[in-house]
Amino acid sequence: xxxxxxRSSRLxxxxxxxxxxxxxxxxxxxxxxLSVKIYWVKKxxxxxxxxxxxxxxxxxxxxxxxxxxxxxxxxxxxxxEFILFAYEDKxxxxxxxxxxxxxxxxxxxxxxxxxxxxxxxxxxxxxxxSIYVKDGLLLLVPSDWLEVKQExxxxxxxxxxxxxxxxxxxxxxxxxxxxxxxAGMVVLILILLVEIFVANAKYxxxxxxxxxxxxKYGLQATMIQNRSTHSKYSKIHKxxxxxxEAIALF
Length: 250
Description:
elongated; 5 helices; four-stranded mixed beta sheet; alpha/beta
């Protein structure tokens, strides 16, 4: 694992074959560069001008190229062509966790393709493997295949604007399902709001009728007072009834 300490965020090259455990100082943030082993990338020309339009097509473009899994996608335009990415959030998050890194310590996540696309000399990422650029794509090859190579350096890297946000639960529910669930929740909330509005309207109507009834019959302000009065006169009524029955008997 390669790191650069000369930044507000420490730069780390994240490779699945590196077994090093990484520790963070209190308040320290990490900018992660994902090794080419962690994602899939394509460089293609499309009769489209907007990256937004291209992103809608990414699942179809990668459909026949990826093993089974739950993928997220990213794309950007490089001159007249598009650079497309597919990656699995869960696998990356699991790798990050295995390195001893907390999600709270991550400042940003980048692709090696974006950060090393312009290197002129191959760079070794470990004792056996190196990266180099061919036709605009960053490739991984055995170091023995290369005559000239340098050790990977992060000191001169100026991070690009291309970064991703890892979805904590992207492997459980895909984006389309999330959109459907969100739409269902919105509809449910609207129904509840309508029911609350109707209930409030009926409550106001009942209160008005209650006040009108109390005013018409001169009732007291609270139901407790009215129940007490009702109990009092009920007792009086019972005594008077018994008295009348006794007088009638005589």
